[in-house]
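Two proteins follow. First one:
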Amino acid sequence: MDQIIYMDNAATTKPRKEVVEAMMPYLEEYYANPSSIYGIAMENQKVIQESRKFIAETLGAEPEEIYFTAGGSEADNWALKGVAHANREKGRHIITTKIEHHAVLNSCRYLEEEGYEITYLNVDEKGRIFLNELEEAIREDTILVSIMAANNEIGTLEPIREAASIVKAKEVLFHTDAVQMYGQMPLDVNYLKTDLLSASGHKFRGPRGSGFLYVRKGTKISPFINGGGQEHGMRAGTENTAAIVGMAKAAELAFRTMNYRMRKETYHRNYLIRRILNEIPWVKLNGHPYYRLPSNANFCFEGIEGESLLILLDMKGICASAGSACTTGNTEPSHVLNAIGLDDKTADASLRLTLNEDITRKDLDYVVEVLKESVQSLREMSG
């Protein structure tokens, strides 16, 4: 195939060359266990702490508030289960939304089996929560509210600061899944008033198998993995030095170029949305037209089936998605699209296109032309 146009950056991103180069010494030369006391081990421990300090600075946090994990799903699981188990004497009520990532939703279902009660907040047709519904849902026994910063399917940004202000006024802990936002848009835990925040390295051109959980100092949370004393005794297991270094390098590059990337991706996203809506009939844009990630465009095409469209795009060298990569192979329609009011048939006709800064206008023109041909072909086949 002559070209590959990768339009599935919400699923994963290609690690930067600089990230791979930064990781290599910790795979080849400094391979020792960071908990040992000889020279190459101490070098590992040193670079882990430097990486922790830098990640903390990107959030306005303290180094001791950053706990390295193997990814965003682990960080979400830890936030939900760790807070629930550590605060069960105070209450067993948790609030989240109907559009969360499955790492949060399935953690909540797990906790429901343990006797916790979960309230799932509704969202409007653009995917934003109702702040009055959140305030009314908080009870005396509420111990945690978890609301994602940006939705992984439709790209909608949630009013996190306003939501956290409501929650903190009730003296309840607040967690946000920021996997799609960290490295893409500015984040400050003090401005957002959040107690816990999850992120994943491979969403901002770092390595897979890397992530972190921010835990505000003083937050009551149980350890996630028992064993040795790594991560302040909260997350046992020999640290993956190379992955931590790679994630920190990716964060450094992401924050250095953030303003440029946001402007470029927003311009290209709007160009893509405008052409598709204007040139392909019977198309609906999913998500908020303004409060959305710079890189995300999600559509429903009337009269087609999303999986068939993905196959045709793949044949033309275009990588895209019908929704979250974590639900691939699941025959159920998107819970996110259902939550914003789409019926199953409409939801099954969805397409998610997510950009990065390397996508050019020429690439987008090619994508639009292929989409026009593919959608027309599928509609003719379906009669």
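Second one, unrelated to the first:
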Amino acid sequence: MSKYIEKNKYLVELGNQIREVRNSKGWTQETLADKAGVTTSYIGEIERGERNVTVLTLIKIAKQLECDAATFLKNIPKDI
């Protein structure tokens, strides 16, 4: 089984929101990855909706972006 999951609209939306906040700070994926202690490719996979990020990683990313994880989840559709 591949380490990648099939893209779905929830992960894509989550990734878009992370990218938007990262870009608003003028940071590259590499900058965010370094600050959050993950790889640049992992940040890219999250932002493209290719990874189902763990709660702990989402919290690390949110902390570095100076917000909380709920910020990224509040606009996720609730139609699951």
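SUMMARY FIELD: The mean pLDDT is 90. The CA atoms of residues 36 and 60 lie 6 Å apart.
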